[in-house]
Amino acid sequence: MLETLMLSRIQFAANISFHILFPAINIAMCWFLLYFKVRYDASGNPLWMRAYRFWVKVFALTFALGVVTGITMSFQFGTNWPGYMETVGNIAGPLLGYEVLTAFFLEATFLGVMLFGINRVPPKVHTFATLLVAIGTTLSAFWILALDSWMHTPAGYELRDGVAFATDWWAIIFNPSFPYRLVHMLVASGLTSAFFIAGISAYRIRKGDTKKAPYKTLKIGLIVAALLAPLQAFVGDLHGLNTLEHQPQKIAAMEGVWHTEEGAPLLLFAIPDETEQRNHWELGIPKLASLILTHKLNGEIQGITDFGEDHPPVGPVFWSFRLMVAVGILMMAASWFGLYCLHRKNSLPFWMLKALEIMTFSGWVATLAGWYVTEVGRQPWLVTGILRTADAVTPVAAGSVGLSLSLYLLLYAFLLSAYIHTLRVIARKAVQIEEFETSEPTATGSLMNVGIDGTTNHSVKGASSC
Amino acid sequence: MLDEQWLPVIFVGLMGFSVLVYAILDGYDLGVGVLLPMRPDDEADRDTMIASIGPFWDANETWLVLAVGLMLIAFPAAYNLVFMHLYIPAALMLIGLILRGVSFDFRAKAAVDHKLAWDRCFKAGSLMTTLAQGYMLGQYVMGFEQSLPALLFCLLSALCVTAAYSYIGAAWLIMKTEAGLQRRSVTWASRCGRISFIGVVAVCLVNPLVNPDVFNRWFSFPLVMFALLIPVLCTLAFIVNDMLLKRLPKANDRHCWVPFVLVTTIFVLCFSALAFSFFPEIIPGQLDIWESASAPESLRFILIGAIIVVPVILIYTVFAYRVFHGKATELHYH
């Protein structure tokens, strides 16, 4: 059973980690697209339409990967974690149901209108479809984070014979950690998307693209990132304080505090040792952790040893947290410096373009690291205080789980490389395409001779401009 | 009304509706994937075929998520049991769905020399999905029995479901395409229709033989009079469609939509027959809907949402189909 448990955990982690990469970009990307489209509708400036057309391609590709990897998730509970639905199905089921009903259909249906309908519906309807897709992706985040937060800080339920029954739906949805986690994730998506847009725009410029659109989107990406990065630090701090109140063992692991102490230092580096229950090679700033968490220099922080067996593995939580914060600081520095350069000289130095390009996927690193902090930090519980992860696992043979896991991993490695490769192809195509004023969209929204890609290859009459 | 007696019935109805809508809608786009011709000079046809399902496939697949979601919400015990037994075929189906879903976009955006490879992925993924779904349906009907006859039945079911999806896919293409591709689609529809018919007859014969309960249900008086209407109507639809296909395409593209309506009718009838065979059991011979239902307070909460949202979903689905009515050759992906 132990092997099935470990393999199932790895499989779930692999599936959900791979899945979240795409929503992390797209939840916010769709609002960027809406902004481009609204600016175009208001001004008629073709620059905005070019930006829209380029990024909607990237959006569609990312969306497709998000959808198909998301379908896997709805089967996972049954295939690998039957105990989950048996114990908390009365709570989890309706929340997942509302996600499907209010979000999935909305985004999926209007995505079709958004991608294929630009010359079939009036411009206002098309912009409205873009708005509905943006609302859909955000609603989807709302429901799934409500469920995830409930697993961390369950509320509004009662246990009868070990099974959770709903007593107050409002309390279930707006459980104590939900508002913090939701805002933290939405801002994370904003940052991920902003760096993604800035990075790919920088790549285009570095490859010799002299059109205006990539400069514009680079600047927009940097502005949004520069605003969101400090906001995220603030929101993250509030989320941390909320965690201290409801899941102190997670904070103890994040800060590497083994034994309850007053005036705990903020550790910059340490090697936590699970067996000796202490850290090696500690390097920290005295009293800072206590100050941040309790707002007192000598505030007390509970140690991991206080929680007996019920504490998360320290090393992964400790290091993921540091990685997330480090990437966050880097993002803040990069976006501020980039904006400063743009403000002073109206251009970026070559090395800065290269640096932004390298940071295209920095949001992925920070987002994943953050999720590992919070989800590994929930262990050994699947649902805090109600259900242990080990008690929820399937009786399916380890061999079957091993087989499905290997297949998934192979597929994911393949898809990830194909995704990044294809992004490069799209960006390079956009660099090479000339701007023909004749192919500008008209007021009626007719974009008949647009289509630098696939589906209409044989019917392309003119080059498009992106 | 909304008590422990009725809620499971309402939810099994909703779930059945989702499964049926899924089989029809994703059925045609999976079918189009299975039918994708792979010769080098077929590229234009492949583009049109994929363009014909482009705006819809994503929403179509969402019906699967809803159906599975409703099972998970309303009948968690059945959901657990089903996916414990169907672990490997479900994983294979998901991998198939992933492959075909991403191929849509990759083929349009990848470098030109990779396009054919993505088309192959699309076809292979579609085929994997339909075979896995057919196999799972077979397992479900057989009550997850692990024996040689059961395995043979599941393989038969895998082929039949694939043929049926191809049948509705071809009918979709007759409606959405023109000229050469439309004529090809007529030929595909005609062939797949005959294979599907044989498959449906085989399942009708095997099912009552292996499940005595099902036999009793079908042949008990006075219900038999009404129940036998289903196979009669179904056979009629197959025959009428087969005759019509011989005459298609007609001048001015008259009746190009009729095969799709007829195949949809066949799907509805077959689904009714399955539902009639098993209701109120959710897992044949093992679990009924009342034994496996969730708590009424949870069902009530989601039902409120479903009553408000499902009609809205249907309205905007109809809107999307109206936006993209007409021949697929005019569909542009930007």
Give me the strand/helix succession of chain A.
HHHHEEHHHHEEEHEHHHEEHH
Count of separate structural domains of chain B: 1
Please tally the β strands of chain B and state the result.
2
SS field, number of helical segments of chain B: 14
User: Mean of the pLDDT scores of chain A?
Assistant: 85
Largest sheet of chain B: 2 strands, antiparallel
Largest sheet of chain A: 2 strands, antiparallel
- Category by helix and strand content of chain B: mainly alpha
C-alpha termini separation of chain A: 54 Å
Assembly type: heterodimer
Explain the overall architecture.
The complex is a heterodimer of chains A (466) and B (334). Chain A is built from 14 helices and eight strands. Chain A has helices spanning 2-43, 46-80, 82-116, 123-152, 169-173, 178-206, 212-246, 248-255, 288-294, 314-345, 350-358, 362-376, 389-392, 398-432; strands spanning 157-160, 163-166, 261-262, 266-273, 278-285, 300-301, 381-383, 387-388. Chain A is globular, with a radius of gyration of 24 Å. By secondary structure, chain A is mainly α. Chain A has one domain (2-235, 316-459). In chain A, the strands form four sheets. A two-stranded antiparallel ribbon of chain A has the order 1-2. In chain A, strands 3-6 form a two-stranded antiparallel ribbon. A two-stranded antiparallel ribbon of chain A has the order 4-5. Chain B has 14 helices and two strands; from the N terminus they run H-H-H-H-H-H-H-H-H-H-H-H-E-E-H-H. Helix content of chain B is 79%, strand content 1%. Chain B is an all-alpha fold and 334 residues long. Chain B starts with 6 loop residues before the first helix and ends in an 11-residue tail after the last helix. Chain B has helices at residues 7-35, 43-53, 57-74, 76-85, 87-109, 115-141, 148-176, 179-210, 212-218, 223-227, 229-247, 258-278, 289-292, 296-323; strands at 281-283, 287-288. At the A-B interface, helix 2, helix 3 and helix 14 of A face helix 2, helix 3, helix 4, helix 5 and helix 14 of B.
